[in-house]
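The following block was generated as part of the benchmark described in Methods. Ligand: pyridoxal-5'-phosphate.
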Amino acid sequence: MNSSKVNKPSRDSTKVVHSGKEDVSIHRTVNTPVYRASTILFKDTDEVEKAFEDAYGKSSDSPGVFKKVPFYGRKGNPTSWSLERALTELENGYDTVLTSSGLAAVTTSLFSFLKKGDHLLVTDTVYEPTRHFCDKVLRKYGIETTYYDPLIGEKISELIRSSTKVVFMESPGSHTFEIQDVPGICKAIKSNKNQEIVTMIDNTWASPLYYKPLMHGVDLSIGSCTKYVVGHSDVMLGSITSVEKHFPKLWHTRQLLGVSASPDDVYLATRGLRTLSVRMQKHQENALIIAEWLSSREEIEKVFYPPLKDDPGNKIWKRDFLGAGGLMSFALKNVKENAVNRMINGMKYFSLGFSWGGYESLICASYPSKSRTATNWKFNEPGIRIHVGLEDPEDLINDLEAGFKRLHKS
Ligand SMILES: *Cc1c(COP(=O)(O)O)cnc(C)c1O
C-alpha cells in the first residue's frame, strides 16, 4: 500500500466509513453481518483437504501460510476479517489479528517473539497489567524484563544485550503521558545489525486514527479496541497490526493461545469504528478546552496532556501524531487522599470507573509511583486521571469546578 496515501485525516475519515466492507454485497446490508460460528461445514472430504491446505499449508509445520478461509470459528470469519482489513488500512500495516481483549493483544505479541533466556526492554510508563504480565508470567518462563526511561530516545541502544529480542513502547505513557521519541528508538534498534529485535507499541491512546506507529519504524501496533474503536464502553477487544515479516508468527501464536474474538464483539467494534473520526475530533476538542482550563487553576501543579504547548512532549507529539485522545491527568498542590476522594465522590458527569475511550467522561485517582521502577515520579499523589467524553465542555468544567470546591473543604 502506498504509505503517503493514509497520512491525512481527511483520507482517514473516509476510510473509517468504508474500509473492510467487501463481504457485504450479497444481502445488500450496509454493515457486514455477525457471522456466529464455531463449526464450518464442508461439502465433502476433498473440500476438507483443500481447507486444511489453505489454512495450514502443505505440511503442518509450515508457518508461512495463514489464509483467511472458512475453517473453524477460532480462526475468524467474515465478521472479523472485515474489521481486520479496516484496521490494517488505518494503521498502514500488512495485516491484523483480533484478540479477546487489549491485554490479550499485548500478551499474544510478547509470547510470539520471546522464549526462555530472552530479554526485553519495556517502557517504565507501560500500562500496569502489561508490567504485571512481564513480572509475573514472562519471568516465570525465564524471560527477563528491563524497564527503561520513556525519554531515553536513541540511548536505548545502551540497554541492548545479546539476548534482547523485543522492545515494547507505549506513547504517551499510561497515567503520566510522556511522549517517546519512537522514530529515534526504532532507528537505534534497527541500526544494530547483529541481532533482530522486534519493536512493538501500545497504540491505544491516540487510536489508529491519530497515530500510525508502523510509519515511524515500529513492527507491531497493538490496540485496545475496548477504548476508542468500540467507543461505547460495552465490549472488550484487542488488535495487533503488523508488518509483513512478523505477521505469520503472530497469527499462529494467536491460534495457539486461543485468544480469538467473539463475532458479536467484533460487530460492535466495527460499528464503533464507523464513527471514530467524529468522536475523536470531539474528544480532542473538549479535552484541549478542559486541559487549558485546568492549567489555569491555582490548585493544580501540572497538567499532563501532550497537546498543551508547554508539555515536554508537545514537540514530538506535533511531529509524529495526527491528533490526541481525551485522556489526561493532573497533579495537585499539597493534597491529601481524603480531599481527592471528596472531589471524586461528588462528581455529576465524570463517573468513577476504570477503562476509558467511551462517549462518557470518567475520573479516577492515580498513583504513578506505584508502577515505576526505572524512573522517579516527582509530583504529589494521588494525582487525578480524567477521560474527557463527548458532553458539553461547559458542563464538564462546572463539574470540575464544583469538585475543586469540595477538595478545599476540610
Ligand atoms: C485498557 C488498556 C489496555 C488493555 O485493554 P483491555 O481491552 O482492557 O484488555 C492496554 N493498554 C492500554 C494503554 C490500555 O489503556
